Amino acid sequence: MTPAPYAGPTVFGYETDLPLRRVAQISVHTSPLATPGGKDAGGMNVYIRELACNLARLGLPVDVFTRRTSPDQPEVTSPCEGVNVVAITAGPPAPLDKNALFPLLPEFATEMALYSLREGVRYDAVHAHYWLSGWAAHLVRRYWDTPFVQMFHTTAHMKNAVADAVHQESGLRGGTERRLLSLADSLIAANPDERADLVWRMGAANDKVCTIPPGIDLDLFRPLDKAACRARLGLHPSDPVVLFCGRVDPIKGIETLVEATALLNRGDGAAPTVLFVGGDVDGDGEPTGALTDVARQATTLGVRDRFRFVGSQPQDDLPRFYSAADVVAVPSRYESFGLVAVEALACGVPVVASRVGGLKFTVEEGTSGLLVPWGDAAALAEMLRRVLDDDGLRRELAAAARPSVERFAWTSVAASVRHVYQRLANGHKRNLCGEEQIFREGA
Q1: Any idea what DSSP says for residue 203?
Q2: Would you put residue 289 in left (φ > 0), alpha (ψ -120 to 50) or beta?
Q3: What is the set of domains in the chain, with CATH numbers?
Q4: Hey, which of 26, 115, 313, 442 would disulfide with 133, CB 3.0 to 4.6 Å?
């Protein structure tokens, strides 16, 4: 007699484990649809959107929950097939400082649950980005009882280690992050240093933490013709050009870049143009908001004429800016991954970056770029000048740049994250991480 097929509950390790049907991601304080380079909009926004879209291409639909910041914002926007970005009303539908959002998280969690009830959807896993989203994921558990993955992107512990007294993170954030280490079912670290920090300094369980870096769209970020890009952007064909791309935030080390530019201006070689992508400019192209502080420092140091501020740019336009540059400067005090560096390298452009966080693993020193101590303007100026003046070195670094980041293709990264979701959805508590070695040994 042939036994009947097993129709009971899931049993670990057997073919009865059910496939993933749908997952939720949470990004409370910033929308994945925001233009990178603006306030609170940078690499994390790109990561969330690209991860969701690439998971959808693997056949896994994703709903991304973010806080509504305008009364005209539609409830649901679809940036790609299989992905919904859902605007949740929690507090006034207006921009708020992220430090004011914690009291709104219970309302945010309740409204997420009501949305899923109205739409008749259930989630097999939840992926929270940043500490605020992690607490929302914890709160929504009372309704969904779904395992959740936490990715901090940055932690108060790491930011406070490099921030001055004025920009220290709150005790509320630090304490909440430590609680999330035990509340989350899994943690994703963007690089080996972050994993070590979570486990050895913050006390996370070793078998909870998976090291999976963000990915890169290698079809979008690719080398373009430099002369054509410069002509399009109004740059002189032979002028040395240093590019900075990112948010105007103390952690980005912008003041070090301005100081380094002043040193370059006094060097023997031609003074470079610094093409600055990020922040806000007015209709006349003049810096506004936080970017005025950068312009003021440049004026004080006598290099305002070397800076060309173009404001935040759509992601699809960034390859043109990268390809127009001779070298990209990433002077950050800390980066969990260093997306700008990886995008630049994918476009075949050498990078000079701080030797911090994920940058130590994404920039292969002496092969695709050069690394310097963070906050050291003299060292940054010296390495920028070296790349600008040495045509042979620049060509060698450029030739190795794109091959060095092909390991970060989204197909591999999304599959690794999906593996974590699947293990959690099937009820596993250990061996959550895949076997892919995206970071090279010894990098």
Answers
A1: -
A2: left
A3: 23-215+410-425 (3.40.50.2000), 226-407 (3.40.50.2000)
A4: 26
CA–CA–CA angle 243, 245, 246 (5° rounding): 155
Q: What does the pLDDT read at residue 3?
A: 46
Please give the structure tokens belonging to residue 272: 């470079």
Name the token pair of 268. 């023997």
Q: Which of 240, 405, 439, 257 is nearest to 330 (CA)?
A: 257
Q: Do 62 and 82 meet the contact criterion of CB atoms below 8 Å apart? A: yes
Q: What is the mean pLDDT of each run of 10 residues along the chain (443 residues)?
A: 46 60 95 67 82 96 96 95 97 92 97 96 96 97 94 81 74 92 94 89 90 92 97 95 93 95 80 94 90 96 96 93 98 89 97 93 94 96 96 97 94 94 91 63 39
Sequence-separated (6 or more) residues with CB below 8 Å from residue 234: none
Give the integer Cα–Cα distance in Å for 374 and 175. Answer: 27
317 C-beta neighbours (distance < 10 Å), count: 12
Contact 127, 399 (CB under 8 A): no
Q: Residue 176: which of 146, 125, 126, 138 has the closest Cα?
A: 138
Residues 6+ apart with CB under 8 A from 223: 323, 347, 348, 402
